[in-house]
Amino acid sequence: MALKALIGRVPEPRKAALARVRDPASGEVIDEALALWFPGPHSETGEDVAELQLHGGQAVIAGLFAALGKIGSCRPAEAGEFTRRAFENGKLDLTRVEGLADLIAAETQAQRRQAFRQLKGLIGDRAEEWRRELIEALASIEARIDFADEADVPENLVELALFAAQQLRSKIAACLANSGHGERLREGLVVAIAGPPNAGKSTLLNRLARREAAIVSPIPGTTRDIIEVHLDLGGYPLTLLDTAGIRESGDPVEQEGVSRARARAAAADLVLWVTDASGAGAAAEEVGQRPTGAEVWPLRNKIDVATEGIPRIESSSAKEGINRSFAISAQSGAGVDSLVEALSDFTRTYFGATESAIVTRARHRQAFETTIAALDRALGHRASGEEELIAEDMRSAATTLGRLTGRVDVEDILDVIFRDFCIGK
Ligand code: GDP
User: Fold this and answer.
1) Most buried by CB count within 10 Å: which residue of 104, 192, 260, 370?
2) What is the pLDDT of residues 198-211, one digit of tens each?
3) How far apart are CA 401 and CA 393, in angstroms?
4) How far is the CA of 200 from the centre of ligand 1 (A)?
């Protein structure tokens, strides 16, 4: 085995051992390392796992890879392969896999907490428990169907099963009720910066991005124009989108990014409507141009060169959330602090009550919605008392819950879920 070939022995399970790592062909020492041995099934993946902690320099890693290449059975892992094996060996259900992916991607503390809860089975365990309850209820209906002629099978089994279905429906509906918050915490509250051309939208975004708290992550394919900035406001994520940065492109990959950015801006939670207070720009503050649906905060920019009267921000009205409007200079930074403070308030208020959201992804929401639909169909057969139909719909509800955790037939969604993992995870 590889470990023996490299360090000449297999350390005691789960105990770190100091070892010289050698090239198996030449015997040359590559590095001194800590070696760990996790025999399956008590390992991350459920299989035998060896871990070497080396000094990490490029030549050390290259030397180790070359040495591993000389051992016939070794090859580099694919992105997400360790996690995929853990899933296939039943160590992690799919919702935990998603939680792990989210934990790795978490940028703020609130995102980290939510991801960690998912990794520990917040939704997975619940879905599995509900699936079991459904299967039990289903079993009693099937008993009724199979032994209908026998005297000792109670009549009210079906009624009991439907009662269980009804209870479950309420529990799932309660989880769905705050699903929007869980998904938003995962992805960030979206704030779109919109307004007429040259009002200073990009300048404002760049100013906000330069703040200490900002995590700048350009959407792939649009690296020259930063159009998306992630802010960490007191642990809560907020994504700022510059609609001016969303430009047409001939490249199909970029087009995909552009259309995604457009869709996100259209569904923003808040719009910062930037206008040019200096009077130089087009007087294009037409209400018709503003995105509808979301709350809109008017932002009068370029107050450093403004010729007209500048409305001052009344901090009391800002606190009450009425008519929040701001006068700023994106270039000099004047007024930007109060804007950031107001954004922090907005974010805190939005996420305040959502720390324990169970549904954090569209996939979870869709699974729960499909389960509810199937349960409703089952409950709809109550009047006619058609046991076979009730059983069929309850079975379909159980299957949907099984797909959520990956217990049943999920080949089609695996690639999507594992796609986002990196090598070594
Ligand atoms: P966008 O088209 O809305 O993204 O506008 P830009 O951010 O590209 O800004 C348009 C022009 O206005 C640029 O020349 C900026 O330097 C300038 N500008 C932006 N903000 C301010 C400001 O607060 N004060 C002044 N004087 N100029 C600004």
Assistant:
1) 192
2) 888 888 988 888 76
3) 13
4) 4
- For 176, residues 6+ apart whose C-beta sits below 8 A from its C-beta are 359, 365, 368, 369, 372
Residue 50 has pLDDT above 60, yes or no: yes
Cβ proximity of 69 and 48 under 8 Å: no
| The pLDDT value given to residue 288 | 41
Cross-strand bridge partners of residue 236: 233
Are 237 and 269 in contact by the 8 Å Cβ rule? The answer is: no
Assess contact for 102 and 114: CB atoms under 8 A. yes
Ligand 1 pocket: which of 225, 331, 336 to mutate (most atoms within 8 A of CB): 331
Query: What pLDDT was estimated at residue 257?
Result: 67
Locate 111 and state its tokens.
Answer: 């995102």
Look at residues 134, 128, 127, 131 and name the one whose alpha carbon lies nearest to residue 162: 134
Q: What are phi and psi of 362, to 5 degrees?
A: -60, -35
Identify whether the C-beta of residue 83 lies closer than 8 Å to the C-beta of residue 421: yes
Residue 403: count other Cβ atoms within 10 Å of its Cβ: 22
What span, in angstroms and rounded, lies between the C-alpha atoms of 75 and 156?
59
Q: CB-based burial of residue 108 (10 Å sphere; 0-12 exposed, 13-18 middle, 19+ buried)?
A: buried
Question: For residue 201, how far is its CA from the centre of ligand 1 (angstroms)?
Answer: 7
What is the rounded distance in angstroms from the CA atom of residue 272 to the CA atom of residue 193?
A: 5
User: pTM of whole model > 0.85?
Assistant: no
pLDDT at 72 over 90: no
Of the two residues 154 and 59, the one the predictor is more confident about is 59
Residue 56 has pLDDT above 90, yes or no: no
The secondary element (H helix, E strand) that includes residue 6 is: helix 2-7
Residue with CA closest to ligand 1 atom 12: 200
Instruction: Tally the C-alpha atoms within 13 A of residue 379's C-alpha that lie toward its C-beta.
Output: 15
List all residues whose CB is within 6 A of at least one atom of ligand 1. Answer: 197-203, 244, 301-302, 304-305, 329-331
Please tell me the distance from the alpha carbon of residue 406 to that of residue 363, in angstroms, as a whole number: 12
Q: Position of tokens 């006619």?
A: 384
Distance CA 196, CA 317 (A): 26
